[in-house]
Amino acid sequence: MKKYFLIILLISATVTIMASATPPTLVTKSYLDNLMYSKLNPINQQLTNINTQFKTIEQQLALIKSKVSLRVDVIIDKTTAYIDKQPKTLDVAPRIENGRTFVPVRFIGEVFGADFNWDEKNQKVTYSMGSNYIELFIGKNTAHINGQAAPLDAPPFIHEGRTLVPFRFMGQSIGAQVEWNDATRTATIVK
Fold it and tell me: How many CB atoms lie within 10 A of CB 101?
């Protein structure tokens, strides 16, 4: 009659019961740690490689996205905008002041991939897109693009806690085409 021994191994809070026809061999914790490391290390390395590849793919997708044509339509006094005909809600509606169309700078810029900063003390909005760095000052008719002064048709202002800027300047500062449809009161930026 054969003798069977049950061996219980506690590894990573998992209990494994094995039947064996031979007497158990004593195994040290160090041996088990080394065994686990030798089995898991290649998996960890593969996961690290996969993570690196995903980051590279994300960067490539961001680059492709920045080169693909994108259309943004905003309607005066409406808080619904359309990004490639998909509706999005704005925090504040575009508006016309003194014959000039103003749009929310952050919404438009972020759609096209711009990064923003707000300087409360100096009442200054800055955003960067690609190699362009734009500075706008609340209430001032001059902006700066890459350090060079650029005149504005009308100064940016704050409405309902959001900065609104002249529509045409916003489009031109991100290298986009701008269109205006007077019948529908729709401002369009295409890049």
Answer: 23
pTM: 0.62
Report helix, strand or coil for 144.
Answer: strand
- According to CATH, where is 3.30.457.10 located in the chain? 71-190
DSSP 154: S
Q: Strands of 132-137's sheet, edge to edge?
A: 115-119, 124-129, 132-137, 142-145, 148-151
Q: What is the CA radius of gyration of the chain?
A: 30
Give tens-digit pLDDT for 9-31.
Answer: 444 444 444 555 566 666 788 87
Q: How far is CA 169 from CA 8, 13, 85, 181, 189, in A?
A: 73, 62, 23, 17, 11
Identity of the amino acid at 10: L
CATH architecture of 71-190: 2-Layer Sandwich (3.30)
Q: How far apart are CA 106 and CA 126, in angstroms?
A: 10
Q: Which two tokens stand for residue 187?
A: 């401002």
Judged by DSSP in three states, 77 sits in coil
Strands 14-20 and 71-75, bridge-based pairing: unpaired
- Residue 132: in which H helix or E strand, if any? strand 132-137
Tokens of 55: 């980051």
